[in-house]
Amino acid sequence: MIGTHKDLLGIETLKAEEIHEVLDEAKRMPKQDSLSGKTVALLFFEPSTRTKTSFELAAKRLGAEVINIQVSLSSVQKGESLLDTLKTLEAMGVDLFVIRHAEPGILNPIASEIKASLVNAGDGAHEHPTQALLDFYTIRERKKRFKGLKVVIVGDILHSRVARSDVWGLHKLGALVTLCGPATLIPKEAQGWDVEISYNLEKALHGADVINVLRLQLERQKQSFVPSLEEYSRLYGLDVKRLSLAQSNCVVMHPGPMNRGVEIFSEVADGPRSIILEQVANGVRIRMAVLRLLLGESQPEKTREKRCLNKNF
Ligand code: CP
């Protein structure tokens, strides 16, 4: 059970019942101040609005003390390693670290070196487990099921940690996932993910129950993966006409931040099928649930097993 784990590093190694456990925990009304006396530290080596703010709100609403480490002003700039930074902060009494970093898998070897819990808030193009969990929570609330649900993930799959976490989790939960985008933005490894792959958005959208639109991650693209933004938008931008090809009750998601007019048009992003702001709101719930489960406060009688979810990474 996830509540007996020390860390949340990814979705890939979680079982379906552990995912449901987090979603169920997020539905419960938490005891106020249930994390009173705990200290949560946020270390973001990459920019964030949603993840960082929602973790801070989640921790504060549970009564935890929160410290925001400004990485650009910390001794990381003098060459201190991430592990030494975490050990230093742990010695000051930090119980749980929320970390976003550009390097895929950086937290996995570190997790066994410290006693405090680690939560992966996005590691390069590898995983973004709490984004996936809030996506699953939002889908479950709206659709009441995962089995047989057609979920189309469209956009820059290659650079997306959200795509990886979503694909691995949705597959375990029984949904049918279609990945859609230009061939240059679909990683070769996706052939082994047990998903449909489509290069044609119109075809992919037929029968879709959920569309998750991903941002073109231009900051991670060291070469040109699309001829131009206009061309990309013409072939893969989600507008109302294309949305009409999906099921009539299909919902539209986007992890944010959005490039309006590129991968999604405002008529869809702000339209009646959009549940993008529901995702944002559910992000606080999910992060409260993850903090409660990892810090052992939802089941105070149990003994926390200090082990890492992804020890075989
Ligand atoms: N979805 C997401 O991770 O957004 P932020 O980069 O704003 O945290």
Provide structural commentary.
- With 313 residues, the chain is of the alpha/beta class.
- The protein folds into two domains: 2-127 and 280-302, Aspartate/ornithine carbamoyltransferase (Rossmann fold, 3-Layer(aba) Sandwich); 129-279, Rossmann fold (3-Layer(aba) Sandwich), CATH 3.40.50.
- Helix content is 34%, strand content 14%.
- It contains eleven helices and nine strands.
- The protein has helices at 16-27, 50-61, 82-91, 107-111, 129-143, 161-173, 201-205, 229-236, 240-243, 266-269, 276-294; strands at residues 39-44, 65-69, 96-101, 117-123, 150-154, 176-180, 196-198, 210-213, 251-253.
- A five-stranded parallel sheet has the order 7-6-5-8-9.
- The longest helix is centred in the last third of the chain and has 19 residues, at 276-294.
- The chain binds phosphoric acid mono(formamide)ester.
- Phosphoric acid mono(formamide)ester binds at residues 48-51, 122, 131, 255-257.
Please give a handful of descriptors for the protein shown.
313 residues, alpha/beta, Rossmann fold, 2 domains, 5-stranded parallel sheet, 4-stranded parallel sheet, 11 helices, 9 strands, 14% strand, globular, disordered C terminus, binds phosphoric acid mono(formamide)ester
- The 3D shape can be described as globular
As a whole number of angstroms, the C-alpha radius of gyration is: 19 Å
Level-2 CATH architecture of the largest domain: 3-Layer(aba) Sandwich
> Could you tell me which ligands this complex binds, including any ions or cofactors?
phosphoric acid mono(formamide)ester
How much strand?
5-15%
> Helical element count?
11
Classified by CATH, the class of the largest domain is Alpha Beta
Low-confidence stretches: 299-313
Biggest β-sheet: strands ordered side by side in the sheet: 7-6-5-8-9
Major beta sheet, specifics? 5 strands, parallel
